[in-house]
Amino acid sequence: MRTLRVGDVMTSRVVAVTVATPFRDVVDLMLRHEISSVPVVDDEGGLVGLISEADVLSKQAYGGRRRSVLDGFSGLAKRELRDLIRSRGRTAREIMSAPVETALVDEPLRAVARRMLENRLKHLVVVDDARRIIGIVSRQDLLRAFDRTDSELAAGVVDALATSEYGGRVAVTVDGGVVTLEGKVLRMEDVASVCWYAWTVPGVVDVVYHLTVGTPMEPGDAGGARADSTPGPPLDR
Fold it and tell me: What is the number of other CB atoms lying within 10 angstroms of the CB of residue 159?
């Protein structure tokens, strides 16, 4: 089974600015290209920062407000202070956020999606080992993994199970992205393993299983215990 990676869904054409790009040019680029963030690069093309819509809006929200001596004693919130300073910025270097969390082109989509959710990130800049930009991946890009037909998902789950001892022993059907597994496994702990293989396929909405656990006592005897449930996504193995 081939695991989907960042390079399969990322946007390769990235609009970037240099550290010296004026504020108004940054805004013009974001509006003209209808993008919500702009990477900032140094003279060698290495990633040094990122400008988001929130960074730009700090100019509108805090522009003209001056930090007084009393601000140091009044407990000005760290984020508010940062936005206040940024609102005075005139170039990309002065308004960008840094450091920037990035992704690598060969990272599995599952790992990147988890990181984006945990850190509340809307996009990640994709870089090479020298931190040169080769793409950008957004939450919308990750959604492409779910744009798959039931037959494609079924084939993916069958391929995943084929790499395990359960290949050919568990039947797979998919309806509306929900995978149903039916068949026989030897041990109760095998139930979780079979479901894990199904969950590794990008685009799976849920996994339902109806499995018999154990071996028949004699020919024609169904034997074994039944395991029927609708588990949620498992933890990492």
Answer: 15
Q: Are residues 57 and 125 in the same domain?
A: yes
Cβ-Cβ contacts under 8 Å for 172 (sequence gap 6 or more): 154, 157, 158, 161, 179, 180, 181, 198
Radius of gyration (Cα) for the chain, nearest Å? 25
User: How much of the chain is in helix, strand and coil states, percent to nearest 5?
Assistant: 35, 25, 40
pLDDT at position 39 is: 95
pTM over 0.70: no
In a domain, 236, yes or no: no
Burial class (CB in 10 A: 0-12, 13-18, 19+), 13: exposed
Quote the pLDDT of residue 142. Answer: 86
> Which of 99, 130, 145 is the C-terminal boundary of a domain?
145
Tell me which of 145, 180, 201 is where a domain ends: 145
